[in-house]
Amino acid sequence: MLKQQIEMVLSPYSEIYNLIIPKDNILRKINEMIDFSFIYDELITKYCPDNGRAAIDPLRMFKYLLLKVIYDLSDVDVVERSRYDMSFKYFLNMAPEENVINPSSLTKFRKQRLKDIELLDLLIGKTVEIALEKGIVKSKSIIVDSTHTKARYNQKSQREILVEYSKKLRKSVYEIDESIKKDFPTKVNSGILEDEIKYCEKLISVVENNELITKYPKVKEKLNLLKEIIEDDLEMLKHTNDKDAKVGHKTADTSFFGYKTHIALTEERIITAATVTSGEKHDGKQLKDLVKKSRENGIEVREIIGDAAYSEKDNIEYAKGEKIRLISKLSDAVTHGNRKNEDKFEYNKDAGMYVCKAGHMAIRKARQGKKDSGTNQVNTYYFDIEKCKGCPHKDGCYKEGSKTKTYSVTIKSVTHQEQMNFQETEYFKDRAKERYKIEAKNSELKHRHGYDIASSSGLIGMELQGALTIFAVNLKRIIRLSK
């Protein structure tokens, strides 16, 4: 049975853990706080119980991935650190003298064992359960927002990625001994991917043959990252794009290629729900799902705090029907009335523009109709006609020969009068100030745990990264609030 494989190997040296690992060590606290046996229940169908060699303990493999996220390490480096770091060995249920796994096993575990598992909802649910048991979550409000993650591939060309990482490796070497420069291969400028791969392989060989240089952690980390890209990701580098990633817009002038993670957060800064989408998806459309997941995880939701992206008509009516206060300021361009083709055009609150199904943003807008005349005003959004002519989605959207392509939204202020009145109250203004908490949480995800760039390709890989990262962040927050 899988659970029998996890038992720590009996060792005469096991007592060393109690001697050298402090009681306030974060890995010790995580081990003491959570029973990870639920991982077995999720993975039982992924293993054959009576055929072949015994598998590497799945719980240990899961914990390796968790360590990668907590300390933002590559596969090679997290395994190497578990060779000598006693806190890592303790966390992994290893005997002090026990040998480590082959780093390539982590890639196989991610791709084969964790596929088709709703890990994102599972791990968030476990941490929320712990927070509720400890009495940490007392608020009945959730703060909602999204954070964007750039795709790992195709932000730059395949060759540019290799050039960037080889440059980082050379720089780390020069900081220690610039004289090694004479041993490095001549840089190539042919613009050919295969030539750059050969250069990187030669560079790696030179660095690895210098045992003194490779003992420096900053060199070793850069070396391992470059090797991992070439050895593990070479096939992906040859792909033309990340098929699941899409262009999203932060403002009218800035965009990104990748994914969005839509998050619900309590005022105690515990993430209660999350959904991962491609980059172009509208924030407001995820609200109902975030509320539903939060409630399923045991959170009572009486109030939602979010930016203007969540103030569309459907959300206001939904919140009212659920007897939830919606602290989301109206934008006069966010679905204020009836509009056609809602599935083809979505509003980007940061840019103040609509985006079509192909991901193209309107280039300007104009308001039509007289203000305060008793008739409805209309916002008309204009799109780049040259992009429309070659768009794969133009059938039924763009008429051949047309000189303009527009999309109009009727503004019905009467529909939102109650919300307009509510947002002018002192209560609304005071509660809206709580939004900074989720912005700080998004920053933590990106800058402390590597969530600014996807660690692999595809929506499934992004969901796995999100699951592990949020799991780690929630556990750290629970530990902090439990003091």
Describe this structure in words.
It is a single chain. This protein is of the alpha+beta class and 483 residues long. It folds into four domains: 2-117, no CATH class; 126-148 and 248-335 and 412-454 and 476-483, Nucleotidyltransferase, domain 5 (2-Layer Sandwich); 158-237, no CATH class; 338-411, no CATH class. Helix content is 43%, strand content 14%. It contains 19 helices and eleven strands. Strands 1, 2, 3, 4, 5 and 6 form a six-stranded mixed beta sheet that branches. The protein is globular. The mean pLDDT is 85.
> Helix/strand-derived class?
alpha+beta
Shape: globular
Instruction: From the 3D structure, determine the CATH topology of the largest domain.
Output: Nucleotidyltransferase, domain 5
The DSSP helix count reads 19
Number of domains: 4
| Cα separation of the termini | 37 Å
Number of β-strand runs: 11
Reported CATH architecture of the largest domain: 2-Layer Sandwich
Rg, nearest Å = 26 Å
Name the assembly state. Answer: single chain
